[in-house]
Amino acid sequence: MSFRKVLAGAMLASFALSGCTGRDIIAMHKRPEQPEASLSTPASAAPFKGPAVAATSDYPKDTNAPRPQPPAEFASLRNPLTATPNNLAKGKAAFDANCAICHGAGGAGNGSAGASLNPKPADFRTSIHTALPDGYWFWRLTKGGQVSPFSAAGSAMPPWETSLTAEQRWLVILYERTFSAKK
């Protein structure tokens, strides 16, 4: 077997173990790699002020813009779980297994697979993430980048509705919220 085939097989196996989908791999391959400095939130960026979600939004083109309103079936959802140490540990395990590859272990949007994505994976440490309602988080995690306006922007985020149960998604959300709470 040629070296290229062995290397390709090893890469595919590592992506499969990380939770990336074939669609993600293709998307990462097509997008030019960005410099490492662009992965973090600029120190001069002002804290978010205003509504967290809006009917019209320039996000994801403008990362400081309010996020688009989720569809009605998601808008009023509330996380049924509480942030107990046990639930946060379960959420961290699910995040580490499925999300950290793109969003980074610290939620900064700087995971190894996210380095070549455009738009970049969300940085959960930003102040807007503190203000986002549960329904928005659940919508994004459930549908991924397959819905407007994220699909039009080229988001490579996979929909997690078939890979993670509703409870697992809520656990991940509990854990993701800890990144912006650390400010």
Can you walk me through this structure?
With 183 residues, this protein is an all-alpha fold. The protein has eight helices and two strands; from the N terminus they run H-H-E-E-H-H-H-H-H-H. Strands 1-2 form a two-stranded parallel sheet. Helix 7 packs across helix 8. The chain starts with a helix and ends with a helix.
Please indicate the percent range of residues in DSSP E strands (runs of 2 or more): under 5%
Return the domain count.
Answer: 1
Q: C-alpha Rg, in Å?
A: 16 Å
- Intertermini distance: 51 Å
Order of helices and strands: HHEEHHHHHH
Give the number of DSSP strands. 2
Shape: globular
Uncertain runs are: 3-18, 21-45
Structural class: mainly alpha
Average of per-residue pLDDT values: 80
Number of helices: 8
Helix amount, in percent?
40-55%
Biggest β-sheet: count, sense, barrel? 2 strands, parallel
How are the strands ordered across the major sheet? 1-2
Topology readout:
Layout: H1 3-18, H2 22-30, E1 53-54, E2 67-68, H3 72-75, H4 85-98, H5 100-103, H6 127-131, H7 134-143, H8 166-181
Parallel strand pairs: 1-2
Helix pairs in contact: 4-8, 7-8
Summarize this structure as a short list of keywords or feature phrases:
183 residues, mainly alpha, two-stranded parallel ribbon, 2 strands, globular
What would you say about this model in short?
The protein is mainly α and 183 residues long. It contains eight helices and two strands, in the order H-H-E-E-H-H-H-H-H-H. It has a two-stranded parallel ribbon.
